[in-house]
Specification:
The chain is of the alpha+beta class and 633 residues long. Helices cover 50% and strands 12% of the residues. It has 24 helices and 13 strands. The strands form 3 sheets. It has a 6-stranded antiparallel β-sheet with strand order 3-2-1-6-5-4, with helices on both faces. Helix 18 runs antiparallel to helix 19 and helix 20 packs parallel to helix 21. The longest helix is centred in the middle third of the chain and has 32 residues. The two termini are 20 Å apart. 36% of the residues are buried. The N terminus and C terminus are likely disordered.
C-alpha cells in the first residue's frame, strides 16, 4: 500500500457522516473477534460512510477493484484504525440509541443501488453499493477518493447521485443505479411512495418492471432488518469499554517487561487478575495433546480432544465462556471449579497455547460479559506467550550448513525415486497395454519425475532456471491428481464439479501440479483430525472470472474438516507456520503462495471453526489465462 497525505482527514470524514453509537460499538465488537478476517470486518465498515472514508483516506487503493479496498490493509492495522475511529469519531446531534438521518439514508441508498445493478445487470453490484454509500456533493470527499486511486467513473456516480431522470438516458450504468437509488430511498419503508413517475423511471432507464422493483425493495428491507439486528447486539457502554482497553494495553506493556525468572503461567495469572478483576485464577498451558496446570499429584490435566471437558472445548473453539458448576462434567473441570471457589468459572483461551480459568464467584471487576475486553485479553495473552517462548526456538541453520544438507538430501532422495520409477516401468510391461490401471501408472510416473525435478532445483541454490511453459487443460490435471489421491485415501470422498468450457491456460504445468497437490494434501490431513461421518474434499473449476480487467480460471478446493486455528490463519502463507505437529515444517502453503505469485495468480482462503457441522476450509486459486506477463499487461 502506497501511503500519501490524504486530501481529507479521518476526523473530517467522521464529521461529514455522523455515526450512531450502536454502530461504533458493533464495529469495535467485530474487530476483536477471534478468527475475524479482513473481508468480514470490511463488511461492517461498509455500513457507515464515515467508517469507510476513514479507511480509504489511508492510502492508495486498487482503482480497478474498489470493492476490495481492504486487501492491501493488514488486519492488525484495520483493528488499530477501528479503535481510533471509536475514540475520535463523535456523533453529531443524535441520541445514543438513535440513528443519524444521513447515515440511514446512505445505507439504504447503497443497498438499493446494489439491488438495481444486480437486477438490471448494467454494472457491478458491489461497486454500485459503495458508490451509493459514499454519494455526496462535497467536492473535498470526491477529491480525496480521486487522490487515492478511485476512477472518475466511480466519483461521477458519487457526485451526480441527485441527477434528474431526464439527464440519465446517456449516463453510465453506475450513475443510473445510484441516481435511481436516491429516488427510491423513501419507498423502502413506505411502498405507497413508489409513484407512477418512479416506476416509469425504473422501466425506461434500467428496463425493470414494477414487480421487479417491488421485489428488490423487499430484499433491501430484509437486509436492513438483519443489519439492525446485528448492530444492536453490542449493547455495552462504548466509553467504558474504551477505558478498559486502554488499561489493558498498559497492563500488556507491563507484562512484556516482566522478568524472565517469573514462570509464564504466573505472569498470565497476574495479568488476568489485574486486567479483568479476578482474584482467583488457574493457568492451563498446552503440552502436546494435553492442557496442564501444575505438575505431579497437585496438577490438573485433560486431553485437548476431550468431548466432555469445557476446558478442552474452550481451546478447540477459541471461545470465552462462563461455565456454571452443573456444566462441569469432566473430572478436570470439576477439579478446576472446586479450586476456584466452586461458584462457576470463566474460561478464556489464548490462541491454541492454553486456557485461563477464573473463579466467577470471586470476581471484583464485573467484566465477565464484555466480549471486546475478553477477546482483547485473549490476544494479549497469546502475544505475551509468543514473546516469552521466542528465545526457546531452535536457532537458524547457517547458510553453508543448509546448502550442504540440501545437497545431501538431493542426492539421497533421487536414488529411491529412480528405483520406484524402474519398478513402475516393469509393472507396466507386465500388464496389458489397454489395462485401465495403465493411465494411473503413467500419472504416478510423471509425478515421480516432477518430484525429482523439484529436488534437483532446490539442490542448485542460487541458480535460476526457466520453468517449461505449455498450454494445458486444468481439468485434466485435476482429474489425474484426484484419481491418485483417491486411491491412497479411500476414507475420503472426492467430489469434482468441473467447468467443461474451461479454456486452455498457458503456464508451467509442474507449478500448477505442485500447488494443487499441496492444497489437496492439506485438506486430506485436516480431515484426519475430524470425526466427520463423511469426510469430503470438493474440487471445482470455473473458466470465466474477470477481475480488474484480467481474465482468470478459478480452482476451488474445499473440505469439511475442523477449520484452521486463528493463530495459524493470520500467518497462513508464511514459512514455518503450521498447526500440525511432528514432521510438518509448515512450508507447504508458503511454497503455494510463491508459485502462485510467480505465475501472476491469486490465492485466498476462507475457514470456519464451529462446534456444529459448518466447519471447513476452502482455498480459491485464480490462474491467469496467459501466465504472469499477460496478467500484468
Amino acid at each position: 500500500m502506497q501511503p500519501l497525505v490524504p486530501a481529507i482527514s479521518p476526523d473530517r470524514a467522521g464529521n461529514l457522516f455522523p455515526a450512531r453509537l450502536q454502530s461504533l460499538r458493533y464495529l469495535l465488537h467485530v474487530s476483536v473477534l477471534p478468527g475475524v478476517d479482513r473481508a468480514e470486518l470490511a463488511s461492517v465498515i461498509e455500513t457507515e460512510p464515515g467508517f469507510l472514508l476513514t479507511f480509504l483516506a489511508l492510502g492508495k487503493q486498487a482503482s480497478s477493484a474498489p470493492d476490495i479496498w481492504y486487501e492491501q490493509i493488514p488486519l492488525p492495522l484495520m483493528r488499530a484504525v477501528v479503535l481510533d475511529i471509536c475514540q475520535t469519531m463523535k456523533p453529531v446531534s443524535e441520541p445514543e440509541d438513535g440513528t443519524s438521518p444521513a447515515t440511514t439514508t446512505a445505507l439504504i441508498r447503497s443497498l438499493i443501488a446494489a439491488e438495481l445493478a444486480r437486477s438490471s445487470a448494467v454494472t457491478d453490484p458491489d461497486v454500485a453499493r459503495l458508490a451509493g454509500l459514499l454519494a455526496t456533493e462535497d467536492r473535498e470527499v470526491v477529491n480525496m477518493l480521486l487522490s487515492v486511486g478511485w476512477s472518475p467513473g466511480m466519483t461521477d456516480a458519487i457526485s451526480f447521485y441527485r441527477a434528474e431522470p431526464e439527464e440519465l438516458q446517456g449516463a453510465s450504468g453506475l450513475i443510473r443505479c445510484v441516481a435511481i437509488a436516491e429516488k427510491l430511498v423513501s419507498a423502502v419503508n413506505d411502498p405507497d411512495r413508489l409513484d407512477p413517475f418512479l416506476r416509469l423511471c425504473c422501466a425506461e432507464i434500467l428496463q425493470l418492471d414494477e414487480e421487479t422493483v417491488y421485489e428488490l425493495l423487499g430484499r433491501v428491507t430484509e437486509q436492513l432488518r438483519n443489519i439492525s439486528a446485528q448492530v444492536t447486539e453490542a449493547s455495552y457502554s462504548l466509553a467504558d469499554t474504551l477505558g478498559k482497553l486502554a488499561r489493558m494495553h498498559a497492563y500488556h506493556k507491563a507484562l512484556l517487561q516482566m522478568s524472565g525468572d517469573i514462570p509464564i503461567d504466573e505472569c498470565l495469572r497476574q495479568f488476568g487478575q489485574v486486567a479483568l478483576g479476578y482474584s482467583q485464577s488457574l493457568c492451563f498451558l498446552r503440552e502436546n495433546n494435553q492442557l496442564q496446570c501444575g505438575a505431579g499429584d497437585a496438577g490438573i490435566a485433560v486431553a485437548v480432544n476431550s468431548e466432555q471437558s469445557q476446558l478442552a472445548r474452550a481451546l478447540r473453539f477459541q471461545r470465552a465462556d462462563i461455565i456454571q458448576p452443573d456444566q462441569c462434567r469432566s473430572l478436570a473441570d470439576r477439579q478446576t471449579n472446586d479450586r476456584l471457589g466452586g461458584g462457576g468459572m470463566l474460561l478464556v483461551p489464548f490462541g491454541q497455547q492454553g486456557v485461563l480459568a477464573f473463579g466467577v464467584a470471586a470476581a471484583t471487576g464485573g467484566h465477565q460479559t464484555d466480549p471486546v475486553l475478553l477477546n482483547s485479553f485473549s490476544e494479549a495473552a497469546a502475544d505475551f506467550l509468543a514473546y516469552r517462548t521466542a528465545d526457546e526456538q531452535e536457532p537458524a541453520i547457517p547458510v553453508s550448513l543448509f546448502r550442504q544438507r540440501v545437497s545431501e538430501v538431493t542426492h539421497e532422495v533421487n536414488n529411491p525415486l529412480a528405483i520406484v520409477q524402474n519398478y513402475l516401468k516393469t509393472l507396466s510391461m507386465k500388464l496389458d497395454e489397454d489395462a485401465p490401471v495403465q493411465s494411473d501408472i503413467q500419472t504416478i510416473g510423471q509425478e515421480i519425475m516432477r518430484v525429482s525435478t523439484i529436488v534437483r532445483k532446490y539442490g542448485q541454490i542460487g541458480a535460476t532456471e526457466d520453468m517449461l511453459v505449455a498450454t494445458i487443460n486444468v481439468n485434466d490435471i485435476i482429474r489425474q491428481l484426484t484419481s491418485v489421491m483417491q486411491g491412497s485415501r479411500e476414507d475420503i470422498s472426492f467430489t469434482l464439479d468441473l467447468d467443461e468450457t474451461m479454456p486452455g491456460v498457458t503456464l508451467a504445468p509442474d507449478s500448477l501440479k505442485q500447488i494443487l497437490v499441496n492444497l489437496m494434501k492439506n485438506s486430506a490431513e485436516a480431515l484426519s483430525q475430524t470425526e466427520r461421518a463423511t469426510p469430503q474434499i470438493r474440487v471445482s473449476t470455473c473458466g470465466a472470472v474477470n477481475l480488474g480487467g484480467t481474465r482468470y480460471v478459478e480452482v476451488t478446493i474445499a473440505d469439511n474438516g475442523p477449520g484452521i486455528p486463528p493463530e495459524v490463519e493470520s500467518r497462513l502463507f508464511e514459512a514455518n507456520n503450521s498447526s500440525k505437529s511432528g514432521q510438518h515444517a509448515g512450508l507447504g502453503l508458503n511454497i503455494v503462495k510463491q508459485l502462485t505469485d510467480d505465475m501472476g495468480g491469486l490465492i485466498s482462503c476462507r475457514t470456519v471453526r464451529s462446534p456444529d457441522d459448518r466447519s471447513g476450509t476452502s482455498f480459491q486459486l485464480l490462474v491467469p489465462l496467459a501466465g504472469k506477463d499477460a496478467a500484468n499487461q
